Amino acid sequence: MSEKQLIIFTDSGDTIIDEATQEFDKAGIVTRAEFIPGAGKVLKRLHEEGYHIALVADGEWDSFQNVYRENGLGYCFEQWIVSEVVGEQKPSVKMFDTAMEKMGLSEEDKPFIVMIGNNLKKDIAGANRYGITSIWLDYSPRYFHTEEEADWHPDYTVHTPEELYALIGRLEMQAEKRRENTIW
Question: CATH code at 61?
Fold first, then answer.
């Protein structure tokens, strides 16, 4: 397996996990939740293919630990960047700076990073402001579907995890060509 050029930052709720299935304890911590149909399979496949994946999500550390412990796919993430720990939520630059730092990335890596999310105001605007590629997974009816600000416009839109997987494959081919051109 060759080294993948594309680096994946991904949100969790309504991007991998279906927020409609979340169950909470008395303290408001998510204790369990189900995948969006096909999302677990795609996450596992991307990991197995050698993509570097970081969870970049707003919420409580224990909620993510519970959910990914239950579904057994927490190992797919090289790093966990969680707003409760960082102290700010997306679209804050601090979330993305932390992801870059924890993944050992530099400014030169930005053209090879994608941020996948379900929220135009947080995930997409945050990625766009940070200078990385934004991918909107338009799965959930719960969040904004109208671009209220210019930087809410995603670079790419997909509707299912399967469409996301195909897009990642195409973007990986572009990234490989871009890396070859910068090396030579």
Answer: 3.40.50.1000
